[in-house]
Amino acid sequence: MFDFLMGPEPGRSSGRPQLPLDIVSSIISRIESPADLARVSRSSRIHHFLTIPLLYRSVVLVCRQEGRRAYITLAQMGALLKPGIAACVQRLEVVNEKPSGQDRRGEEHGIWAVAVVGIVSGMTRLEEFLWNSESMMHPILYEALSRHPKLKTLRIIHPLSLHPPPPPSLAPPIVFRNLKSIHLTGLGSRTTYNWGMSSMPALQVFKVSWRISTRLSVIFPEHGPTQSRVLKELHISNVVLDIPLRRCLDLPELQKLSLLDCSVGEESSWDEILRVEEQKVANAGSPASVLSTGSGRGVVRQSPIPAVKHPKLKSLRINEVGKHWVNFLSSFAGLEELYILPSTSVIEQDTVEPFLDAIINFHGSTIRNLRLSTSQLVEKRCASKLVRSCKGLEEVSLRIPKSEWKFIEILILFLTRIRVFHLLTTELSSHTEEYDELLAHREETERRVAHEGESLLEIFGFGTMWAWVIDRTPSLVDGVDPETGKVEKRWVKRGHIEQISILREKVGVWKAEERI
User: Fold this and answer.
1) Contact criterion met (CB below 8 Å) for 81 and 44
2) Radius of gyration (Cα) for the chain, nearest Å?
3) What is the tens place of the pLDDT at every residue in 299-355?
4) What is the pTM of this model?
5) Measured distance CA(454)–CA(463) in Å, rounded
6) HSE (CB half, 13 Å, CA atoms) of 382?
7) Mean pLDDT, all residues of the chain
8) Could you say which DSSP state residue 249 is in?
9) CA 282, chain centre distance (Å)
10) What is the average per-residue pLDDT within 180-203?
11) Can you tell me the mean pLDDT for 383-403?
12) Exposed site from 90, 373, 403, 426, fewest CB < 10 Å?
């Protein structure tokens, strides 16, 4: 491929045929390495023209701290200021490294923000902006982003160790007309960045976490019982749910819901918070309407019964399995992803079995990814009932005792579409012991997976750190029969041990571990 791409420009003699531009463009679009793209861009003017939009499609600006001065490398700034380069950027990430962890609002910080604003103004195709820093974003940059005509996604990521932000501004919220997704972490209050839900009319994805517990009525102050917002995704953390969700958004239209470390207000209940519709009481004292018929007898006219709305939820992420969640799961069908994360504050008292029964009875035919990180173990009987009813499971993460190796192998065989199976409970004291235990079952795992032939299992996670990654193509090797001691040929699927953190982005039950 590179032999063709590194050739001379069209029109010059090369001694070999030249590929058409559409084929060259298709080849270049498949190059993932930035270093390879840079090499191709230097080979000819045509290749430079085709490669630069891909090379600068995603850019990371790093502001490092050296001594008492913060700076961005001149090479980064200079490259983006060249004609046509900034217009290629679709995703911009700003990483501000401040070891002190303290917010800074000095003159130097303002000059640096103005410089970034100048760069962003030339990015006419910018759709996603990520601020990953230990300092607050400067108001100049924040306001400039609100005026960008193409910006669709805004992410502002702060660590929990961030120094408390300055007092909130009393100015009206800054308006983001075209913003569809917002992701904010480590906020001190709703006005930390001076925003409001009414200032984002096109918003579809809302993902925010707070360092200090915040009330839901403060986040959605402008919505009443008859006015709600249509969101596709709602992800909130450390929030007191003092008003029902239906008063904030159109709950039946929600596709993804994540409520982590959330509690209920003193005057509310979980059943009221999660109820889709208002309970309407019929007026028994009102006179019935009567239609006269030819026989003189009256026919009572009954008003039509309104259709009950059911959630269209596809993904749910919570960190408890209380009875109210059992009732919620029993109120609709069609859930595809369910992630139960460990709780940091809730003491689990309810058993897991009613929760699993709700999954089986109402979502057994559609559930694909299931993670149960509860403190209680899943009993054999419950696990067997789960795999018999939910045959479409592709990723499973359960707490089953390590002593049940044979039982776990049978579970995997029943799940014909399983790709990832994670055994959360290991009963071992260290990651080294987990590694050795996983390695000890290597030969048996390779042989059993290959023996099944059509098994789709790719990853077997063990504990919190290690996973066995299985090769898809089986191979024929010499093996020893443990009963007869004879050497015989057998099929195996080779594999290797990998860290779960490296595979997290590819596996839903592990990616769901990321806190908001």
Assistant:
1) no
2) 29
3) 555 555 556 678 899 999 998 888 899 999 999 999 999 999 987 665 555 678 889
4) 0.80
5) 26
6) 17
7) 79
8) B
9) 42
10) 84
11) 87
12) 403
